[in-house]
Amino acid sequence: MTADAEAPPPDWVPAAGPAQASRITYLEMLERPAPRRAPPPLDQHVLMRVEEPKVAYFRWLYHYVGRDWMWIDRRRWPDDKLAAHLAAPGYGLYVLHLKGAPAGFFELVPQDGGTRIDLGLFGIAPDFIGRRLGPFMLDQAIQLAWERGPTRMTVDTCTLDHPKALILYQKFGFRPYATRERLAWPLGPELARLD
After folding, report:
1. If you average pLDDT over residues 105-114, what whole number do you get?
2. What DSSP string describes 111-156?
3. Would strands 20-29 and 175-184 be described as parallel, antiparallel, or unpaired?
4. Which tops the pLDDT comparison, 193 or 10?
5. 91 close to 85: Cβ distance less than 8 angstroms
6. In this structure, are residues 162 and 129 in contact, taking their beta carbons and an 8 Å threshold?
7. CA distance linking residue 34 with residue 40, whole number of Å
8. How confident is the model at residue 147 (pLDDT cuts 50, 70, 90)?
9. What phi, psi does 90 have (nearest 5°)?
């Protein structure tokens, strides 16, 4: 199915606006890189793994970090599906706090029996973009992922993400292996209530 042939999701209504075309790039890393040791933030900071993340907290964090980049897929997930994702064995949600405030997050998702770790989500909160947090956070994500002993690490990004996302992933050693076109349909009125 081509992007042009994608059917809109059930929540979409014409008043929500037209779909946006995007190109997804899939990237992989097949061996653990040498640590880059990107400089940490100058402000007081802590990167914490969220133990037993709650659905409501995740929904808030996902919206806060992704609202400017049309992060909508997980907002369409029902609570039970999202809860199962967050409780999956080996799942890791990591939140970077600056001076106590959440500044960004990423998730590590084991796939293929743990032989592959997917960097499922990675983003900086809008209030903290431009402070060079991305390199530090990505370096941390890569090191934490490879500590789990996979043979492959993956991530994907699209043309609706921050314009420097693809460049950053490649700078840290990820290599593209596939692309595909996709339509991103705006949220319908019920799901868009946070916007």
Report:
1. 96
2. EGGGTEEEEEEEEE-GGGTTSSHHHHHHHHHHHHHHTT--SEEEEE
3. antiparallel
4. 10
5. yes
6. yes
7. 17
8. very high
9. 85, -5
Burial 55-91 (b: 16+ CB within 10 A, else e): beebbebbebbbeebbbbebbbeeeeebeebbeeeee
Place of tokens 């609706």: 160
- Distance between CA 50 and CA 157 in Å, rounded? 23
Q: Report the candidate in 123, 85, 91 with the shortest Cα–Cα distance to residue 106.
A: 123
Report which of residues 194 and 79 the model is more confident about: 79
Residue 194 has pLDDT above 70, yes or no: no
Alpha helices in the chain, H assignment, sequence order = 55-66, 79-86, 133-146, 165-171
Region for residue 134 given its phi and psi (left: phi exceeds 0; alpha: psi -120 to 50; beta: otherwise): alpha
95 pLDDT more than 50:
yes
Q: What is residue 34's three-state secondary structure?
A: coil
What average pLDDT does range 102-114 have in this prediction?
96
Dist CA 157 CA 165 (whole Å): 7
Centroid of chain to Cα 122:
3
Q: How many CB atoms are closer than 10 A to CB 32?
A: 16
Which residues does residue 108 pair with via DSSP β-bridges, in sequence order? 92, 119
Which residue carries 């314009």 as its tokens? 163
- The predicted-structure confidence for 3-12, as pLDDT tens digits, reads as follows 445 788 888 8
pTM over 0.85: yes
